[in-house]
Amino acid sequence: MTIIRDQNTPRGDFVFYSDRVIRLLVEEGLNYLPVVSKEVITPMGVPFQGVTFEGRICGVSIMRAGESMEQGLRDVCTSVRIGKVLIQRDERTAQPKLYYSKLPKDIADRWVLLLDPMLATGGSAIKCIEVLLEAGVKEERILFINLICSPEGALTMLERFPKLQIITAEIDEGMDEHKFILPGLGDFGDRYFGTE
Ligand code: PRP
Ligand code: URA
Q1: Cα 25 to the center of its chain, rounded Å
Q2: So which domain of life are we looking at (predicted)?
Q3: What are the respective helix, strand and coil percentages of the chain, to the nearest 5?
Q4: What is the pLDDT, as a whole number, of residue 91?
Q5: What was the ipTM of the complex prediction?
Q6: What is the 89 CA–ligand 2 centroid distance (Å)?
């Protein structure tokens, strides 16, 4: 986290270390899925009381920055389906605008790992969750995987969607007048995709 927050970190390192943290966050998110008991027999011929997840999952990334988290999900879930929702904040007003969404057809029956590294005002994530709920996803089946959030953003989300679960690496101190997270890491999408 220190490396990716450092303004002097070159892009290659920013991508590499962001990917490392994202992978950990995705793994942690999977721990929140419900499991049922399952017994297996080990090669020693001995039963082992374990667990298994019987549901189905998918990812949904909030483009563009959320796309950076798709590989982390693919690395741990083979052939995972990934829906995409393009939401962009207006650079002047910080208000989110929905441009496009494409979701798996059976998303209403799935658990959703919602991917966006930055949660500032919460406007973008709220808009995306509204799209998911409209598609029939149950609120309690949404796990929001996030790298850095503002306290205001996290509170707004949880007040609006009390059954939502947020898995984040760090809750920061606040936001500046342009609704950028402080201390934050700047514009994640620009740093990750090299469009600064
Ligand atoms: C960033 C970020 C979130 C959003 C967070 O995306 O990835 O989607 O802002 O801010 P909010 O909580 O106040 O809505 P941005 O719209 O800048 O686009 P990008 O993904 O292309 O960087
Ligand atoms: N989006 C970013 O990339 N960074 C912020 O601090 C806020 C929104």
Answers
A1: 8
A2: Eukaryota
A3: 35, 30, 35
A4: 87
A5: 0.97
A6: 9
